[in-house]
Specification:
The structure holds 2 protein chains of 2 kinds. Chain A is an alpha+beta fold. Chain A has 13 helices and 29 strands. In chain A, strands 20, 21, 22, 23, 24, 25, 26, 27, 28 and 29 form a 10-stranded antiparallel sheet that branches. In chain A, strands 1, 2, 3, 6, 10 and 11 form a 6-stranded mixed sheet that branches. In chain A, strand 17, helix 12 and strand 18 form a beta-alpha-beta unit. Chain A is globular and about 80 Å long. The two termini of chain A are 45 Å apart. By secondary structure, chain B is of the alpha+beta class. Chain B has a two-stranded antiparallel sheet. The chains are: A alpha+beta, B alpha+beta. At the A-B interface, strand 5 and helix 9 of A face helix 3, helix 4, helix 5 and strand 5 of B. Strand 5 of chain A pairs antiparallel with strand 5 of chain B.
């Protein structure tokens, strides 16, 4: 393998993929040759164009639907699916054949992510593919597109950084790394809010050192098409050099710009319904599209009080068959700003989600649409994340107080939404007697994640300041406490810490002092928990009780001892040991009390079986 | 391309022909005299007209229809509808066609000055780029008022077409099952 020529960032997004490159030979220090790579894709049958974004949509066409010649790609690959713009366009008309939001399915603990469950409403004839396969398909397209234009520097030989939401659990990270592996790519994972901050660092060309001070707490608010993701990054000074530490990440929240467009479409559709016009699904989709454009105008600083929204006719009679209505500033303010970004108290919390059965099918969308309430919950939960830093608020302050905010994601292309989020946050800060947080300027909202990931790869080569952080959770295994059985009562559950918070990439935690009994040849399953707030727990610490805020249950883990050299049915005592790998995944291993053997403990990604 | 040069016998025939015609044809004699003084302008080259390939025109029409419903709009009889109805449809056409222009063409004005301002057209101006109208007399540089800034396509980036893709289908018939 030759030395890499490029550091490449891959944004495998819920709604879009993007790829950015740093030419290593032409970069030195803060002077970075960074570009976004155009991605050739079918935009219509038989028409190929390179665009900066590849829509993360996969369409499974009917064999008669589109001729092989009309679905050819410049590199001659033949896949049974269509990807990108054409897939999105086709899928809008034929949803039963469309796979969208594969990434949200990839981290859905309630489903088997290796099973062909997508598209969710597909009739049996359509076939279907798994969330994992869909992710492999997007990455394969990126690889083929890159290799086609860079035959001298194949993608798998470059320094690759692939982004994941900060809130992704270990199983979803593992699956993402596996998808890359299956696509023939060896990647390092990076959290998306960190990538956004890297992009900002790079874009300032070294000027960021004057824009932040030691003691700054940077809140990254990343609201994309499908997900909302929060992270906190602290600025510290060590031996006169500014350092960045990622302190905390938020929960996985399926809430984004697509929800907002859909909400507005329903508002307008109900207006039309009041006038006696009902829309069919095709028209509703067209209306959603129209509302998106109108929203962007109304929130983009335009002075109009209302923007006409026209639902085009399906047939050729465009003038006679179209429906005209309008979206008013008042409606956008009421349903979008007040609905998704309401001015709430810092003590507000999202409407509680009723615990869903793990076998429930369908994506676990956020029950509460208010981004500001989710933000309040995040800052409240992380109130103690920075107490170890000099100059930060004392314990018991009620919420963590950021001093700067970096916005990312397409939703924040609307200046009004940036302004509202800042206004709400600064209201909380003012009530607590703190100075307002400032917005860090100059992020490219659609492409920051891929650009930042490319830059992060360059930084790992020694080109700049690296954001440190380690794992953003502590991890626990659930064990039943030993007590006499009482009919009708489940024995109480204890949580044994197997990995501390902040385990750095490339380092291993201590083996657990507790022993776990495994039976040779039989899979043994454990309940598995994560905590984004318990920073003090060490490996082996046992929790008897915890609040739902403290520990979240993740998918189960499963260990199977191979029968080689042992008797089936024999019980073996093992310790659990956790490693944060160099590539950003978590590896759990069982090791016997004596001997050098190691067995991999797998994350359950099949969903529901034990739940 | 130079014409083939006539051989000896052809030249002798031409010389005798010219002798008699100079004697009998005054107009011919006058032309011959101008030629000998080196004055006769070369005949203007026949204009080279080439037929534009239909493929990219059809492709563009297809794009404008696909994104902006342009063909639907133009093929409909607008006289039957109110201005409000036509206006509503025009928004779809405008938004969609504009997207096509933005996506595939980089447009820039030919002249950067604001329309209505006085400008000077220099001597070596390109007549294909700047059109003079009104009181067109005298010698350049001309001074006048910029009536239209003009448009120039700086870059064009039409999608690549698959071999044999039927570009004459501007919009497929849709059959909902």
């Amino acid at each position: 393998m030759t030395a890499p020529s490029y550091a490449i960032g891959i944004d495998l997004g819920t709604t879009h993929c993007a790829l950015a490159q740093v030419d290593l030979a032409r970069s030195e220090g803060d002077e970075v040759a960074l570009e976004v790579a155009p991605l050739p894709q079918l935009i219509a049958p038989g028409e190929v164009q390179a665009r900066p974004l590849l829509p993360s949509f996969l369409y499974l066409p009917h064999p008669e639907e589109i001729s092989p010649a009309d679905r050819g790609l410049p590199w001659g690959a033949e896949h049974p699916w269509l990807l990108g713009e054409l897939a999105r366009e086709r899928g809008a008309h034929t949803p039963i054949r469309l796979v969208s939001s594969a990434k949200s399915w990839l981290c859905h603990p309630g489903v088997d992510r290796r099973a062909p469950i997508l598209p969710p409403e597909a009739p049996p004839e359509v076939g279907g593919i798994s969330p994992l396969e869909a992710s492999v398909a997007y990455l394969t397209h990126l690889r083929e597109a890159w290799d086609h234009t860079h035959p001298e520097a194949p993608l798998q030989e470059q320094l690759l950084t692939l982004t994941v939401p900060a809130s992704f659990d270990p199983a979803a990270r593992e699956l993402t790394a596996e998808a890359a592996d299956l696509a023939g790519l060896r990647v390092t994972l990076l959290e998306e809010p960190q990538a956004a901050l890297y992009s900002w660092l790079q874009a300032t060309g070294g000027g960021w050192r004057r824009q932040v001070r030691p003691g700054d707490l940077i809140l990254v608010v990343d609201v994309g098409g499908g997900t909302a993701d929060f992270s906190l990054i602290a600025v510290a000074e060590e031996e006169g050099v500014l350092q960045l530490h990622r302190l905390a990440v938020g929960d996985h929240i399926l809430l984004g710009g697509d929800n907002m467009d859909l909400a507005l479409a329903h508002v307008v559709a109900s207006k039309l319904a009041a006038e006696g016009t009902t829309l069919d699904p095709w028209q509703l989709r067209a209306l959603t599209h129209g509302c998106r454009s109108a929203k962007e105008r109304l929130l983009g600083g335009g002075a109009e009080e209302a923007i006409p929204v026209v639902v085009p006719s399906r047939g050729a009679k465009l003038i006679g068959g179209s429906l005209r209505t309008e979206l008013t500033r008042q409606e956008v303010a009421e349903f979008l700003i007040e609905g998704f970004f309401p001015g709430v108290e810092v003590s507000a919390r999202p409407a509680a989600r009723t615990r869903v059965g793990l076998t429930q099918f369908g994506l676990p969308y956020a029950q509460d649409p208010a981004v500001t309430r989710h933000l309040a919950a995040f800052l409240g939960r992380q109130e103690r994340a920075a107490t170890h830093l000099p100059g930060s608020a004392p314990e018991g302050a009620g919420f963590l107080r950021p001093t700067a905010v970096l916005f990312n994601g397409g939703v924040f292309k609307a200046p009004a939404l940036v302004a509202r989020t800042l206004e709400v946050l600064n209201g909380w800060l003012a009530a607590a007697g703190e100075p307002p947080a400032r917005a860090l300027q100059g992020a490219d909202l659609d492409l920051a994640v891929s650009r930042g990931a490319a830059y992060a790869g360059y930084v790992r080569q020694g080109g700049g300041v690296r954001i440190r952080g380690g794992t953003a959770r502590a991890y626990y295994v659930g064990v039943e406490s030993a007590m006499p059985a009482v009919p009708g009562f489940e024995p109480p559950l204890q949580a044994v810490c197997v990995a501390p918070f902040g385990l750095e990439e490339g380092s291993a935690g201590a083996p657990s002092p507790q022993q776990f009994g495994l039976v040779v040849g039989q899979p043994v399953r454990f309940r598995f928990f994560g905590s984004t707030v318990r920073r003090q727990d060490r490996v082996g610490d046992v929790l008897e009780a915890w609040s739902p805020e403290e520990l979240q249950e993740l998918g189960e883990i499963e260990a199977t001892l191979p029968p080689e050299g042992r008797h089936p049915g024999e019980a073996v005592a093992v310790r659990l040991r956790t490693t944060a790998t160099e590539i950003g995944t978590l590896r759990l291993e069982a090791q016997p009390l004596v001997g050098e053997e190691r067995w991999r403990v797998e994350f359950d990604v099949r969903g529901g079986e034990g739940g | 391309m130079p014409e083939p040069r006539p051989g000896f016998f052809a030249r002798m025939g031409g010389a005798f022909g010219a002798f008699w015609r100079t004697l009998t044809d005054a107009e011919f004699a006058a032309q011959l005299l101008r030629l000998r003084r080196g004055e006769l302008p070369p005949p203007p080259p026949a204009p080279l007209l080439k037929a534009a390939g239909p493929e990219s025109a059809l492709q563009l029409l297809g794009l404008l229809q696909g994104s902006g419903r342009l063909v639907d709009f133009l093929q409909e009889d607008v006289t039957a509808y109110t201005d409000t109805q036509v206006g509503a449809a025009a928004r779809i056409v405008h938004e969609g066609c504009r997207k096509v222009l933005e996506e595939y063409f980089a447009l820039e004005p030919v002249r950067q000055e604001a329309e209505g301002t006085p400008i000077t057209v220099e001597a070596e101006f390109d007549a294909a780029t700047v059109r003079l109208t009104g009181h067109v007399v005298g010698q350049p540089p001309f001074t006048g008022r910029l009536a239209h800034r003009g448009w120039r396509v700086a870059r064009i980036n039409l999608p690549k077409l698959a071999e044999g893709h039927p570009v004459e289908i501007l919009a497929q018939a849709e059959v909902e099952l």
